[in-house]
Amino acid sequence: MHSVLDDPTTVAMLLDELMAAGAADQVAVLLARNPATQVAFALSPSEAFAQYSPLTLVRSLKKANADSQVPALLERLPGAARFYAFTQASEHPEQFQYGREPDGSAAIPWTWDDLW
Predict the structure, then answer these.
(1) d(CA 46, CA 11)
(2) DSSP state, 115?
(3) By CB distance 3.0 to 4.6 Å, which of 14, 49, 77, 114 could disulfide with 86?
(4) In terms of pTM, does the model score above 0.90?
(5) CB-CB contact of 101 with 107 (8 Å)
(6) Tens digits of per-residue pLDDT, 7-27?
(7) 47-63 and 8-20 are packed helices; what angle lies between their axes, rounded to 10 degrees?
(8) What is the distance between the alpha carbons of residues 45 and 88, in angstroms, rounded to a whole number?
(9) How far apart are CA 6 and CA 31, in angstroms?
(10) Which of 13, 50, 47, 54 is closest to 30 using CA atoms?
(11) 106 in helix, strand or coil?
(12) Cα dist. 73→17, 21, 27 in Å?
């Protein structure tokens, strides 16, 4: 059976349930579909919840020892208006306190006076 892997929370819940059930083969099949590159980050009416949805998937991927998929998911977050989730899932969220440059590096410190 095939399922659409477009909702990060649903994928995280499925992954967690499969692991809890000891369904290692099914976990492997799900991870082989590379959910980190398949999930969508559509804007939703509940933006507060939408920000945490990718974090749930990051945690589930780490629990499933799918650490190789985490960077692919994290790289997609800033461009999908999920910068908060990106910083929270980063190993050092404080490095992005001033934002992120287009090349992915942390922005240098700035003040409001720098904008004028």
Answers:
(1) 19
(2) G
(3) 77
(4) no
(5) yes
(6) 888 888 899 999 999 999 999
(7) 30
(8) 21
(9) 14
(10) 13
(11) strand
(12) 20, 25, 18
| CA distances for 116 relative to 43, 96, 98, 112, 113, angstroms | 31, 22, 17, 7, 6
* Tens digit of each residue's pLDDT (9 = 90 or more) over 56-97: 888 899 999 998 998 888 888 887 778 888 888 887 878 888
**Whole-angstrom distance, CA of residue 97 vs CA of residue 116:** 20
Q: Where does 21-115 have alpha helices with state H?
A: 24-32, 35-38, 47-63, 70-76, 83-89
Tokens of 100: 């992120």
Domain boundaries, the chain: 8-115
What is the distance in angstroms between the CA of the first residue and the CA of the last residue of the chain?
Answer: 57
User: In the prediction, which pLDDT does 46 show?
Assistant: 54
Residue type, 102: P
Copy the structure tokens of residue 82: 């999920």
Name the more confident of 81 and 46: 81
Instruction: Return the closest-CA partner of residue 54 out of 34, 26, 78.
Output: 78
Residue at token pair 């990718």: 54
